[in-house]
Amino acid sequence: MQLKKISLLLSGILCALLTIPAWGQSLTTGDIAGTVLDPSGAALPNIPVTLTNLDNGAKQMQNTNTTGAYRFALYWRWRG
């Protein structure tokens, strides 16, 4: 009886540990970042950048900073 309980416990722990890598694969998060430059390579500050959600058309908009950089938090499938 004791061996059966230990075996069941170890099986449960093993199943839990094997599913941990799958959690990271189901997340849809991250960042999209970049820098807007002119043809000579100079940074372009205060340029509007728009990110569009492919599933529902929602948009995120922001301007580049003083060094031409932008960063969007990514939560869904977006098209830049």
Strand order of the largest sheet: 3-2-5
Listing every helix as H and every strand as E from the N terminus to the C terminus, the arrangement reads HEEEEE
List segments where confidence is low: pLDDT < 50 over at least 5 consecutive residues.
none
In round numbers, the mean pLDDT is 77
Specify the number of helices.
1
Number of strands: 5
Largest sheet: 3 strands, antiparallel
Strand content: 25-35%
* Large-scale geometry: elongated
Estimated helix fraction: 25-40%
* Computed CA radius of gyration, to the nearest angstrom: 23 Å
* Ends distance: 60 Å
SS content category: alpha+beta
Notes on the structure:
The protein is of the alpha+beta class. The protein is 30% helix and 31% strand. It contains one helix and five strands, in the order H-E-E-E-E-E. Strands 3-2-5 form a three-stranded antiparallel beta sheet, with no helix packed on it. It is elongated, with a radius of gyration of 23 Å. The N and C termini lie far apart (60 Å). The relative contact order is 0.21.
